[in-house]
Amino acid sequence: MMIPKELEVEKDNAFELRFQVPDLGQVMKDFLRNREVGEFLSGALAGAMTKAVLAPLETIRTRMVVGVGSKNIADSFLQVIEQQGWQGLWAGNTVNMLRIIPTQAIELGTFECVKREMASAQEKWDQAECPKVQIGHFSLNFSLSWLSPVAVAGAAAGVVSTLACHPLEVLKDRLTISPEVYPTISIAVSKIYKAGGLGAFYAGISPTLIGMLPYSTCFYFMYETMKNSYCVAKKKKSLNQAELLLFGAFSGFTASTISFPLEVARKRLMVGTLQGRCPPHMAAALSEIIREEGLMGLYRGWGASCLKVMPSSGITWMFYEAWKDILLLERRHL
Fold it and tell me: What is the largest CA-CA distance in the chain?
């Protein structure tokens, strides 16, 4: 039986369904091409590596600043080991690592971004005519030339990282100061939330910001100023590892010394909250410290703080610059 051509079914027109799987390798390369991503990632890696090495010094520093245990650095080390064993020197280190990775990523990444944007804004304002306000015979010019991009970026880095990561700082201090009350992270989170809700995780945020502003501004300004001045004087494009370590340590020492009384007052407010006798504000905490311990009380634990801050600052800058060179060099070759 013959079938008319118009009734024949074409078998070649088969239905095809295709799925296109994204190239994850290309997606990752595109992601890493972003300069800001490289800087944030460099900060995270530098913070994690530094904190893993210096966790015992952070534990001793916190205990001495808040007045827990011995006032002597060596005796404080021995006291922690006797009471909690060697692992006591890393008390709260898990949450410390969880805290430092996002903190350093946000802080260093924000610093680089704001510094670039401020420098770019200043350049644009210099090229164009600055806004003016005419009041009678007086003319007022609004210019950004008097602002230091590094100082503004340093202040912004400290504020942004503090606002983002303060709850982890609260957790770390509770685990370090009262390990018998807060033995694990989950128990600490539960108890803090039950005691004061979400607001309890931002306890002491105001004095923390007050103390962070001078520290962060001075820290980044000192480092960038010394680095750039040294490179110009020596006609170098970059610093070697030893120079990065030295300049980072000195910038941390200077910033810590200037802002240390505010750090002592902040810790006093935080510990006072735990003990139920918290001063009403930072000025009252400073006054209470001076009344009880004299002016030297404002620098109690300063030696232990420098012992921790100087190597921490130096090592952080050394690791950060190294990782940034690696990641940004890789970015140029992607």
Answer: 115
- In this structure, what DSSP letter does residue 88 have? G
Closest CA to 283 of 203, 210, 176, 225: 210
Give the domain range for residue 182.
Answer: 31-114+149-333
Say if residues 322 and 49 touch (Cβ distance below 8 Å).
Answer: no
d(CA 276, CA 199): 17
For residues 174 and 275, the answer to whether their CB atoms sit within 8 Å is no
What is the pairing mode between strands 138-141 and 132-135? antiparallel
pTM of the model as a whole: 0.74
Residue 31 is given by DSSP the state H
Q: List all residues 6 or more positions away from 193 whose beta carbon is below 8 Å from its beta carbon.
A: 200, 201
On whether residue 37 sits in a domain, the answer given is yes
Question: Mapping DSSP to helix (H, G, I), strand (E, B) and coil, where does residue 184 land?
Answer: coil
Query: CA–CA separation, 62 vs 85, rounded Å?
Result: 18
Query: How do residues 17-70 score in pLDDT, each as one tens digit?
Result: 565 656 666 666 666 667 888 899 999 999 988 887 887 877 777 777 666 777
Distances 120 to 123, 124, 146 between C-alpha atoms, Å: 5, 6, 14
- Residue 210's domain is classified under what CATH number? 1.50.40.10
Plot region of 197 (φ>0 → left; ψ -120 to 50 → alpha; else → beta):
left
Residue 245 CA to its chain's centroid (Å): 18
